[in-house]
Amino acid sequence: MGNDNSTGLGTMRANIKRDGQKRVVIVGCGLGGLKLAMSLRHAGLQVVVVDRNNYNQFPPLIYQVASAGLEPSNIAFPIRRLFQGYDNYYYRMADVKSIDSDEKCIATSIGTIHYDYLVLGMGATTNFFGNKNVERNAFPMKTVEDAMALRNHLLHNLEIAETETSAAKRQKYMNVVIVGGGPSGVEIAGALAEMKRFVVPRDYPDLADRMHIYLVNAGDRLLKAMDAKSSAEAEKDLERMGVHVRNGWRVTDYDGSVVTMDNGQTIDSACVVWVSGVRANAIGGIPADVVGHAGRLICDRMNRVKGLKDVFAIGDQSIIEGDPEWKLGHPQLAQVALQQAANVARNIIREEHGETLRPFVYKNLGTMATIGRKAAVAEIGKWKFGGLTAWLLWLVVHLRSILGVKNKFFVLLNWMWNYVNYKQSLRLILRSKK
């Protein structure tokens, strides 16, 4: 098979654009990218999805994999399987390096791919705010791979602690520090607190009650984006579960053994989880004046990247100017990416038909965070929920969002089994070899 540099898709007959048919290239197959691709399936366009991973993942449940509550296959789905049966849909596993807006093409690790419309949905990566020590030694929590790495590390630390003769060293392996008081930090802390309560006493009886979980938050309260009442309820639930919440503590350094704060406090720990901020994934060929706060690309109300023709950005990678209700940009949440993807898909179809494009209007469907079994907080409009009601609502919303009936069934089955006795057999240390 040869290389067709004009398409970047190879010389297979099925991969050559049909006469007059336009191509939409979607970079990133996260929640937004997948929603966009599926929204174009009846548009008569060729759709090419480019992603460095061959799977779509469900970010809201990544922490469940890290705490050995769910299998990776419950929340990750092969992209090629998702596109089976769709005419003129193609997936290419590649890293995207840069855009050439004049030539209307992208440079990738497998060659050049031309586009008629380009949509950037590459999401965000962990923001370590330039702290190289923290970046080198702490664990991020953005992908399934991150979750698997953290799970292996947590279980490995428990095995080391089991045989460590020095009490001080043993405690270092038993201390887990989570940095970041947003939904991700709260959910990871809650999941690990349940692991401490139900798993450690059974699997490591000699280590019972020795595990300590610290949630370090630079702000004055948790869940800053939610109401103060929801924040207080979440903190109360976490402390009831044994989590040490430290508000107003800012991490300045972590050398792999000691976490240092700006107030002079330190915590000995062999495991730090960093969920303190995100930064949009970068791509070359973007003018400097188009890159806004935290690397997000500045877009107009139609999600078109400023100064680039037929280039859109959605989700965590975009920041929309001109929306009077969201002057600082829309929150980097899954529901924003999904709504933007649907609107961009409709606008591409409108442009193909010579119709006027419509601006993106965000509909806030609410915010929620789970803390543990029967414990969560949720806000929908003026309504605020806590406890079991919020947890059941959280469960329903996330199950509805999971792809495929089979996966919904397995996720629910795993959760039910976990809820009854917490004896899931996922606590395996699995390391890949070259």
TrEMBL record:
Superkingdom of source: Bacteria
EC category: oxidoreductase
InterPro entries named in the record: FAD/NAD-bd_sf, FAD/NAD-binding_dom, NDH-2, NDH2-like_C
Entry's EC annotation: 1.6.5.9
Catalysed reaction, written as an equation: a quinone + NADH + H(+) = a quinol + NAD(+)
GO MF assignments: NADH dehydrogenase (quinone) (non-electrogenic) activity
Location of the FAD/NAD(P)-binding domain: 23-341
Domain External alternative NADH-ubiquinone oxidoreductase-like C-terminal: 365-418
Entries under Gene3D superfamilies matching the protein: 3.50.50.100
Keyword Chaperone: no
Keywords, alphabetical: FAD, Flavoprotein, NAD, Oxidoreductase, Transit peptide
Key word Mitochondrion present: no
Protein family (similarity comment): Belongs to the NADH dehydrogenase family.
Protein name: NADH:ubiquinone reductase (non-electrogenic)
Source species: Prevotella lacticifex
